[in-house]
Specification:
The complex is a heterodimer of chains A (298) and B (291). Chain A has 298 residues and is mostly helical. Helices cover 70% and strands 0% of the residues of chain A. Chain A contains 13 helices and no strands. Chain A is elongated. Chain B has 291 residues and is an alpha/beta fold. Chain B has ten helices and 14 strands. In chain B, the strands form three sheets. In chain B, strands 6-7-8-3-9-10 form a six-stranded mixed β-sheet, sandwiched between helices. Chain B has a four-stranded antiparallel β-sheet with strand order 2-1-4-5. In chain B, strands 12-13-11-14 form a four-stranded antiparallel β-sheet. Chain B is globular and about 70 Å long. In chain B, 50% of the residues are buried. The C terminus of chain B is likely disordered. The chains are: A mainly alpha (298), B alpha/beta (291). Chains A and B meet through α1, α2 and α6 of A and α2, α3, α4 and α6 of B.
Chain lengths: 298, 291
Amino acid sequence: MIATSQTLEVRRAATPGNGGDLPRTRDVLGWELRRRVSSRRSWVLLACVALFFAVYLVLTAPLGITPTGQPIPDPETSPHGMLHEVVVVVLPLFGMLLPFLAADGVARDARQRVHELLMATRVSSRAYVSGRYLAVLLLGLVLSVELLVVIWAVDVMLHATRSGYPAPQFGPLVTIWVLTVLPAMVLLLSLSFALGTLWPRLSNLLKLAVLLGWIGLYVVGAEQILGHLPGWAQRLDPTSYLLYAAGQSRAVPGATPDPTRLPALQPWVLPHVGLVVLGVALAVAAVAGFRRFRDVLA
Amino acid sequence: MELRIEGVGKAFGAHWAVRDVSLRCDPGMIGLVGPNGAGKTTLMRMIAALIPPTRGRILWGGQDLRRDAMALRRVLGYLPQEFGVYPELTGRRFLRYLAAMKGLPDALGRRRVDELVELVNLEGDADRRLGGYSGGMKQRIGIAQALLNDPELLIVDEPTAGLDPAERIRFRTLLASLTADRIVILSTHIISDVEAVAGRLVILRAGEIAADSTPEALIADAVGRVWSVTADAATAIRLQERGQVSAMVTDARGVTLRLISPDRPHEAAVPAEPTLEDAYLLAVGERAGVA
């Protein structure tokens, strides 16, 4: 009944040497993305994130005129205003979302009992975890790009509808986004993913721990935590609040007091690349530490 | 194509779920039966390289799974007793996903999935989301995924659970048609399923092999130890304490019991033709000191 003309072809496809980790990683990535795209929940999340941040940005943007009738000193559409918008308004909340996006990248399979089916296939542990990590990273990137578009759209709208808001410049906004949102995103996603992958039974608890850690950085304040460290170490602040503070001439002496100009960004580039590298290192640790012989089966 | 299990044991903490199991499996169907908690699922997971044995070794084609589990996974079809699906995917997409994980190229995977969807009688529902599937339909998806790579070693744990009688027979027949060029290990509680298709029966009890034989030999061993007796209700209750009851029918004449006992349990008892179910109860019961 089952012995068809395909039999030999199917068995040949299963022979050693047919593909390696890279094609399997691509398969895992591709199918995880298809699965996410097939899920209504993903589209609802995208829509809710866009709507929430659009409303939030509009509501938190000062009206164009101060109570004394003067133009606002630091409008959100100026380069420094955009830094405030991204670092102080958007990034704290976006960061809180990321553990929930990433911690279950692998852990969900164990919870949904798909793990046993997948682990009985020929997909290697490396390909499986790497593919899932890349999928999580790509989804985070999609969300962050969506945020970039929302910020830009809100800024354009503010400029068009409120007095005192200069025309937003896309270049500085993208620069800020690349320098602040991307490293924080990679670090938080990777940390959450690694913890959830290595301890899948604790993934909910670990999500909460990362979330609280992120909130703690804001509550205690990056300046309090990192302020006594050398300058390069201060620039490792994933919240980028110290970068914003530099623009406010509070943290770094010599920073420009001009709110329409960004502070010097160059000293922050390398430390923030370091945050990305740290994130990738965490993902590599998750790949290496993943236990295929899962104790959830015990 | 040979599977060897040598002195395998698995401990979870201080509890040994499987102890010192040794088997040699050649192509054909092996029925693995035993009471709940006998260690069937643990043994199958070890054979499927999902959990490592605490002691002993499992060899596929002479290769120890601890050293090269991938060689086995390439040719493995596995249907766990309980498994989940991605509810947001359709049945067809889920199978294509697993086909990709099993290393089938996309075009071949599509053709294979189409064929298997037809084989498990899901053509009409394959493009519906799995979230809306019934337990039986989900089970058929599980069966289909186990066959995607045309496995040389097929391990199925309670495959007919949730299937209606017609589907059960259909699947049983399918399994029987697969045994010519592969090793099929079928674990089930339903003795009639094993009887219909398995040429070899391994009975596990408390993690150990209680019997490893053919169904015919097991039945032959039970000859003279299965009895039928019709008695009144009070006697029937007393008889139940003296031997293991494999069947009981109450009618106008009284209670007719089918008893498994090494000795004649009652002067009215007459020897009965043993079935595989009787033989199974005997094998399991003997070890427990019941019979």
